[in-house]
Request: fold
Amino acid sequence: MTISTRTIAYQQEGVLLEAVLAWDDSILAPRPAVMVAPAWAGRDEFAINKARALAGLGYVGFALDLYGNGKVGSGPEENAKLMGPFMEDRALLQGRMNAALETVRQQPEVDAGRVAAIGFCFGGLCVLDLARSGADLNGVVSFHGLFVPPGNTAANTITAKVLALHGYDDPMVTPEQVLALADELTQAGADWQIHAYGGTVHAFTNPVANDPGFGTVYKEAADRRSWQSMGNFLEEVLK
Reply:
């Protein structure tokens, strides 16, 4: 097995975006693709490594770019500034995500009829918004994502299957917000699952997360269990 990567340049509303595609070049036939929506820093090595890991599972990984030109924030202050416009304009966010979906389907390694998306932290919100937009894809997985509804998708039907993997003690997503997401997904007709991990806070999949005051702490057991749950989910929805 050899995991290859290449940069994919694409545009949305005049903004140049740079995703990183990862695939096992020993597999010759088109195969399912899994988009990776990064956390608030942007398309960093964490996101690219997840795309590579997905390629190792036999998928095409696609670490997408939200901010343009592969921009990666330097720390919390810049990350918040980069993320802010998308939190304020969720239609912009949904358009950016749908542009990534259209782009990954055009890649020759990809079976265009079998595409899913995963996302981490802010990226978890991004993939949920992709599903909320009514996008035609097989499934989405949110890892410690934000659940704040966008306000412009209440009338939509969600056709993508949804898996949310959540730290129950995450200070950024309250138990009330978990229940609200469940109600929202039910009203939208979604096939949904929410897995909550006890004693677990935000960013539990990121090995460098170690800021209890901010509510971001890595937890090996939740990281391992959530990745396994994702694998089971992808095997089901992309078969």
